[in-house]
Amino acid sequence: MSEIPYKIVRSKRKTLALTIDSEAQLVVRAPMKLGEDVIKDFIRKKKKWIIDKQRQVMDYATKQSAFILEDGENVLYFGKSYAVLRGNTAEIVIEGNFIIVPASMTLDGFAAWMKEQGDVIVRERVDYYANLMGAKYSSVKMSEAKRRWGSCGTGNTLNIAWRLVMCPQSVIDYVVVHELSHITYKDHSAKFWTRVATVMPSYKEAQDWLRLNRKLMEVI
């Protein structure tokens, strides 16, 4: 039986966990002193699950090719797929399952519009959850990041990737809650994840969605 290649990340955690990254690579998160034999045995027991998840990630990656602003191209907007149509319109209009763009609009112009829409919803969700959680942030900025969906910087500044506008609202909410939780907990300790789970019990579903759709950060 051939072994599945994996990358191991050790920390002070007490349990063993498996995740599949955006490149379909198996990542093992393990306690500092846990033996390799225990890890390999765990991987063997989870082999079917691992292979299924890796295939799923690769399938998603294949479907998410670079976006071209042409008639019939599909783009995700707040988690829903829309077909693009160029039309005689002065501004972008959404009608049914179509996003109608001005005939002369460039890809950069469309990206700027997406960023503006993302800015509105992200600020709205940040204010909502900040009030709910009693978290005090200093500012919110839509970033051009292609590696991280969000971050909490020095002085509790929140940086959210504008490409998050392509994600469902539940996923946007998760990223917001995640970064607001960093205002209290600067690491990813058990207390941090307890904080996230208290506000959003189903946060792991959002994590899975982001993991599977990681290539969206490279589409536009």
Question: Could you explain the architecture of this structure?
Answer:
With 220 residues, this protein is of the alpha/beta class. The protein has six helices and ten strands, in the order βββααββββαβββααα. It has helices spanning 36-45, 47-63, 107-133, 169-181, 190-199, 203-212, and strands at residues 6-11, 17-20, 26-31, 74-77, 80-87, 93-95, 98-102, 139-143, 150-152, 157-161. The strands form three sheets. A four-stranded mixed beta sheet has the order 4-5-7-6, with no helix packed on it. Strands 1-3-2 form a three-stranded mixed beta sheet. Strands 8-10-9 form a three-stranded mixed beta sheet, covered by helices on one side. Strand 4 (74-77) and strand 5 form a beta hairpin. Helix 3 packs across helix 4 (169-181) and helix 4 (169-181) packs across helix 5 (190-199). The longest helix has 27 residues, at 107-133. The mean pLDDT is 88.
Radius of gyration equals: 20 Å
- Which H/E pattern describes the elements? EEEHHEEEEHEEEHHH
Strand order of the largest sheet: 4-5-7-6
Q: Count of DSSP E strands?
A: 10
Poorly predicted runs of 5 or more residues: none
Shape: flat
Q: How far is the first residue's CA from the last residue's CA?
A: 41 Å
For the largest beta-sheet, the strand count, sense and barrel status come to: 4 strands, mixed
Percent strand equals: 15-25%
Instruction: Give the overall average pLDDT.
Output: 88
Helix content, binned percent: 25-40%
Number of helices: 6
Helix- and strand-based class? Answer: alpha/beta
